[in-house]
């Protein structure tokens, strides 16, 4: 499809170029068949190059449009993600608030402790006494003299 449009542009450009050159040539004088033929050939070559240039310019103009489309799609996707994350964090915050509220309620209400069975106090047994030795062992005198 693109080739057909390019070829039609080439033909129309060729016709325009030929007509404009022939009008200028007719002002100067009469043109021969050879001159007309060479003008047509040159016009075709020029039209071909011009059509390529125009086509590439159109492609370049179309690229930013595609880029804009991609960016808008990406922005929409990111916006959806951001909303989803915002909902998730809001839900987490609500859960934390609810959890802290239940903790506060539990802390405010004194919880009854289970009644402990009365246990008799254990009897303390007397600590074993160290036996006092009647004879004290004197430190060896020889050891103190050598030192």
Outline:
Residues 56-147 are annotated as: Disordered. The chain is mainly alpha-helical.
Indicate how many domains the architecture comprises.
Answer: 1
Largest sheet: none
The SSE order reads HHH
* Structural class by secondary-structure content: mainly alpha
Distance between the termini: 119 Å
List keywords for this structure.
147 residues; rod-shaped; mainly alpha
Walk me through what this model shows:
- By secondary structure, the protein is mainly alpha-helical.
- The chain has one domain.
- The longest helix is centred in the middle third of the chain and has 76 residues.
SSE blueprint:
Blueprint: H1 2-28, H2 33-108, H3 141-146
């Amino acid at each position: 499809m693109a080739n057909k449009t390019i070829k039609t542009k080439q033909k129309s450009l060729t016709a325009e170029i030929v007509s404009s050159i022939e009008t200028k040539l007719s002002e100067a004088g009469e043109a021969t068949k050879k001159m007309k033929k060479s003008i047509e050939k040159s016009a075709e070559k020029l039209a071909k190059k011009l059509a390529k240039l125009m086509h590439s310019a159109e492609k370049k103009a179309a690229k930013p449009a595609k880029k804009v489309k991609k960016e808008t799609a990406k922005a929409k996707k990111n916006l959806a993600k951001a909303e989803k994350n915002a909902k998730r964090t809001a839900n987490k915050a609500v859960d934390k608030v609810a959890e802290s509220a239940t903790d506060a309620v539990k802390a405010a209400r004194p919880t009854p402790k289970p009644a402990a069975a009365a246990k008799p106090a254990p009897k303390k047994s007397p600590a074993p006494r160290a036996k006092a030795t009647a004879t004290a062992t004197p430190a060896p005198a020889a050891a103190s003299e050598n030192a």
